[in-house]
């Protein structure tokens, strides 16, 4: 009987370890496979059979990605729009969330309904384009910032989190003479770090991966081009020119072997575009579980 009781934890932990290893393999395999393809010779990749290790090592795919002189400038444009838009969006969205979370605010329900309606209804792409034009945001850096400052979904997430905070925190601040804005900055905002970190990741990933707004509103200004837009143009051009390059190199097996293909370019682009997010994510992950309700008041 004692032996059976001792064996149960062993089987349980062994089963958990096997399941976790399988989940890790399933999760990491697509990324590792893409990484292997990005370092494999393009023409060899067409044969297939690339799994976790390149068959013919090369950095030619990355050389093709960084061959354009504007790629580094586009990278810093993407970094600037991501950082500025994330900071402003977090501050303004959390301010609105705090406002409509207050029970004494008589218009909180109508305002909430109006904001939520924007999640389900919009005027369409053409009216949106003319709106951006009338606001004089075409070919302007602020076209990346202003339209996405407020997110209805993120506002609801932050408001829900604020409503879980002890009401006594706000009451104590008001007794000490703090106004609404001071209460928001000194009490509510620091306690919302976990949800703000989560929302920040949502906003940052969306801003970093965005290229369609560049295509619509800033494609004629090369100095406003973003990294994702430049990579999209590179992928499109490689797909168009690949067939003609294959014909031209048909008589030269060595040149054909070194040819960059859309599949290898796509893998390299995926790694280049996702690497900054992978670097930032571990610094935000710790806030996803642990709260920071400092100086809470017992009710």
TrEMBL record:
SUPFAM superfamilies, alphabetized: MetI-like
Gene3D superfamilies found in the cross-reference section: MetI-like
UniProt record similarity statement: Belongs to the binding-protein-dependent transport system permease family.
One GO process term, biological-process aspect: transmembrane transport
GO cellular component terms given for this protein: plasma membrane
Cellular localisation: Cell membrane
Spans traversing the lipid bilayer: 12-32, 75-98, 110-130, 142-162, 183-205, 263-284
Keywords (A to Z) from UniProt: Cell membrane, Membrane, Transmembrane, Transmembrane helix, Transport
InterPro entries, A to Z: MetI-like (IPR000515), MetI-like_sf (IPR035906)
Membrane topology: Multi-pass membrane protein
Protein name stated in the entry: Binding-protein-dependent transport systems inner membrane component
Domain (ABC transmembrane type-1): residue spans on this chain: 75-284
Superkingdom field: Bacteria
PROSITE patterns linked to this entry: ABC_TM1
